[in-house]
Design goal:
The protein has 417 residues and is of the alpha/beta class. It has 16 helices and eight strands. The chain is elongated, with a radius of gyration of 27 Å.
Amino acid sequence: MARHAEPAVPEIRVIPPRLEVAADCLAGVMAAALVLPGIGIAGAPIHAGGVSSFLAAVVTVAVALAARRLAARALVTYAVAELAVFCGCFLLNDASYPGSGFVVAGLIGAGLGPLLPERRAPRIRWIPAALIGLLVLVFVRAQSGVGEAALLTAGLAFLAVATSLASRRYVLRAPGRTWALAGGTVVYAGFSVFWVGSTAPSVQWFGSLQFHGPRNVNEVAITFDDGPNPPYTLQIADILEEYDARGTFFEVAKAVAQRSDVTKQLIERGHVVGNHSYSHGAFNYLDPNYPELKQAEDEFRSAAGVCPALFRPPHGTHTWFMSRIVDDAGMTLVNWDVSAKDWVEHDSQRLVKHILERVRPGSVILLHDGIDGNIGANRSVVVEALPAILEGLKAKGLKPVTLNKLLGVPAYLPSCP
């Protein structure tokens, strides 16, 4: 008599109730974490307003919903999601412009999307968890800062992934769209690292870069970008000299070619002139050869008889190639650690407040006596604010010195590269 095979009994997954509740609650917290880029972009070091914060939150939510739709609950999904969240949280604290904040918002959204609550998840679990998570993140951001809120989010994302895996909420085989999402997320993460690393003035991932001096001396350097720009450049020099101070002026060579007389006066009066490129182009820093450095040096030598040893890249953007070229020329690449966005600020009192709130021993302060090397730009807000800034520095016991003195490096080269 033939024996008939017994039908296979499907595997029954027994999931501890507490583990399932924890997974749902942590997914709710991930929904609350969608606000992280918004509350992060509103504060230091970006100093953006409410509109930028709202737009960052919109970007995060939109990308997260798209990622959630494309992602299957597979092992590769969770691995890449955790990578994206961790990388985005790490980058958020260094994002220095609203544009960088939006780039990071997209990365965090791509990571959070697959971790959001499942459609079948009971609302009684994840919605209260989301509200509590939101309050905690906002509180941590307000009391401690962006970095602490980001660190908390990264840790909670790790727990969300761990509980999802422990509760077997995954499949081993992922559909093609999920692999495409994972690959795209990894590529975008690499782009985000480059973008933030090249645009953040204090990030040193791409070679030698200085952005402040010794913290144990009561000296600071006040620097001015984008000149020469009469009459404001010399008005600023007059105010500095009234307080027995000297400034460092990073000048755009195309403007030096037009008003070399201003540059010569600054040098004769004891101020220091630095190289700020030839044309101040926004994307010229992407050229691996960066010919603008030598082009500007040649103009300084021809127009003013000096070869600056200090270089500040336009907008603070820099790459490894640029750093190598600056090093090979024997120059020092310098950015800043204190800025109040004076190029878009029209309230001199608010400008003073923002500078004095952030300055500390060794700081390099960024101001502008011009805009993009265009002669005729109105810089009266800096002229109005400068006396109060100098008074405030004096009250804090901080002495303004030239940047080369603060850093202990030469102001000029013996010959141009």
